[in-house]
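Weekly puzzle thread! Below is a chain. First person to post its structure in token form gets bragging rights.
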Amino acid sequence: MGSHSTLRTARRLSFVAAVVAVVAGAWTFADPGLLHGPEAMQGSARGTALVLLAVAVPVLLVSWWKVSRGSGPALLAALGALLYVVYNGVLFLFLTPFNAAFLLYVALFGSALWSVGYLCATREVWTLGQSVVEVAPVRGVAVYVWVVAVLNAAAWLAMVIPSLGRYPTPMLEGTGVQTNAIYVQDLAIWLPLAGVAGLWLWRRQARGGVVVSALLGMWVIEGLSIAVDQWFGVRADPGSPVVSAALVGPFLALAALGLVPWWLLVRRAVPLVGHSSSNPPGPGDSGASSSAVPSSAVSSSAVSSSAGRRGRRR
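Winning reply:
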């Protein structure tokens, strides 16, 4: 399968993910009888569903529209939006008590994950990654990503380790679940990936440009999502220990702040229309050996990933 065909498949799968996200988000947000468990967690789930519906889907669709007009940064924005859908698909499946929308959540997670896979298999995304690392302030952005990853991991371990020898565990109080999928996927996948991708970026490798830009985009939407789910969680149960209205403002600010490193990284990505390279870069290529010629930033910071995420549906 050629790269252009793979890109078309990624776009079509993204549209499927967008349609499923609209249905899942609207149903989860609007149906008062769908969700179960603690009231605060139900409120948080509705907040996440709203961000999925009103932010992630529009970002995904507008990004693909701009991709059709040749925008390179838009392709990386689409990848970040898809990572947000993947991340929260896991949470809908494992932090939301089983409900009538289960198969829809499976479809949401699956379609977004396959979209990411196909998109990462295209030559275009790696050419963009190489053009990004050649001209962007990669070391400053890499340090930012490392700081977020280290502080976030420290925040999670500070909650997990004291709970290891006690049951019921204090960290799950008020969540209504037996384990926490946020800790699982963050500590096993996303934070290690951020650390490694920061190293790739530092070395000006194409895969660093792709992965870090996508993670930064995901963190921006996730920061906004945390702020919104906190607000809905507090509204549903003001006395719950897992939500706090005091976190809404800081997370909104962190989401806005996270746009800075994302934009610094992707702003000079090569345009897609008319761009070609006889020797397109691979994921591990460095700027010194690439033939790509550039044309012309959450972040849910560790704070954004710490106590506020406790208000997610767990």
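Puzzle host: Confirmed. Bonus trivia for everyone else. Residues 3-311 form one domain.
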